[in-house]
Design brief:
- The protein has 361 residues and is of the alpha/beta class.
- Helix content is 57%, strand content 7%.
- Strands 2-1-3-4-5 form a five-stranded parallel beta sheet, sandwiched between helices.
- Helix 6 crosses helix 12, helix 6 crosses helix 14 and helix 10 runs antiparallel to helix 11.
- It starts with 7 loop residues before the first strand and ends in a 5-residue tail after the last helix.
Length: 361
């Protein structure tokens, strides 16, 4: 008759009398694997599925039980399998020091051996069950997190689209901007000037916050936003206020929440600072160089490039080559030179993004 045992026990003992007592005590309740020397025990330990419990007798030779226990505990594939050492009692402290989960003292008591093996089988089974449950929870949490992030991204994109609804094909523009910024931060993250700030987490936050760069446009009158011709100086001064409006809008979110987050911090930097220029001639504050937040400096290059390759009411779109040359021309005047160099280094990626999300004719 075939019996489907729920657990496997490896018995390793060179003394025939002890081995017989162990096998007689455990057989019928567990599947038994038996080794008479250390080499055979090591081979049986590698068989699939691995044993649930190992019983090592100090009589084992070639290699001995101590060496075998050390080997099992140092191998990540077998380290979690509990080892029971059978000793005369004098070596109990050493057994625990070598990594044994329990000690069975001589002379052997069959009932005590069976009870201890059964306890460790149950303990191992419980640990494996908890591990599997933890992995399931982690998987569910990860999936839920991905769903929330997708929802967050969609909400941000919708907000930005509403704020810039005066522009044609704004959805494509926002996707291009986000991908440009993602490509730029990945290129810049190993630059010694930026490595400390551009961690994986911050790179993701900057790219996500980029979609809100013109959120303040919601406060600009349509008469100015939709004007087909050149703006008057007075109208341009009104237009410039979109950076301040964007900052105020995000600060309003922080006030409602009662706290800020790194994402909102980057969103404020980008909304308020993306019109600043490296030489200090930008707005709204007219700051220069590194006084402009890094996220805003990256955004400035991405935004200007995309504006140049996009058709406007008052002009046709520039070619990629012309737009890139104009960006290059703004190096050290309008733009952080290292950010421009990064865009030039990944020119093919930038062009691929522009083509993938290009506006319809």
């Amino acid at each position: 008759m075939n019996i489907n045992f729920e657990a496997t026990v490896l018995i390793a003992a060179s003394a025939p009398d002890r081995s017989q007592v162990m096998q007689e005590a455990l057989q019928g309740r567990f599947e038994i694997r038996h080794a008479t020397d250390g080499e055979q025990a090591a081979a049986l330990m590698q068989q699939s599925p691995r044993p649930d419990v190992v019983v090592l007798d100090v009589s084992l030779a070639g290699p001995d039980a101590w060496t075998l226990c050390q080997d099992f505990k140092s191998n990540f594939l077998t380290a979690q399998v509990p080892v029971l050492m059978v000793t005369d009692g004098a070596d109990s402290a050493r057994a625990y020091a070598e990594g044994a989960a329990d000690v069975v003292t001589l002379p052997l008591d069959a009932a005590a051996l069976t009870a201890r093996v059964a306890a460790h089988v149950e303990l191992r089974r419980s640990r494996l069950m908890l591990r599997d449950q933890a992995r399931l929870v982690e998987s569910l949490v990860a999936e839920r997190t991905r769903e929330l992030l997708r929802l967050q991204d969609a909400t941000l994109l919708a907000m930005a689209t509403l704020a810039e609804g005066h522009e044609e094909h704004i959805h494509n523009h926002l996707l291009r901007i986000q991908h440009y910024v993602t490509a730029l931060v990945r290129e810049l993250r190993f630059h010694p000037r930026f490595a400390a700030e551009l961690t994986d987490a911050n790179c993701a936050l900057i790219a996500k916050a980029a979609t809100l760069h013109d959120i303040g446009m919601a406060g600009i009158p349509d008469a100015i936003l939709l004007k087909p011709g050149k703006l008057t100086p007075e109208e341009f001064n009104v237009m410039r206020q979109h950076t301040t409006y964007g900052l105020q809008a995000i600060e309003g979110v922080e006030e409602t929440l009662g706290f800020s987050t790194p994402f909102l911090g980057y969103a404020k930097q980008i909304a308020y600072g993306h019109q600043e220029k490296w030489d200090g001639t930008g707005y709204p504050r007219g700051v220069r160089g590194d006084a402009i937040p890094l996220a805003a400096r990256i955004m400035a290059v991405a935004d200007v490039y995309d504006a140049l390759i996009s058709r406007r009411r008052y002009r046709p779109a520039f070619t990629h080559e012309t737009a890139l040359e104009l960006v290059r021309h703004g190096r050290e005047e309008h733009f952080d030179p290292d950010v421009v160099d990064a865009m030039l280094a990944i020119e093919e990626k930038i062009l691929a993004i522009a083509e993938e999300f290009r506006d319809p004719e």
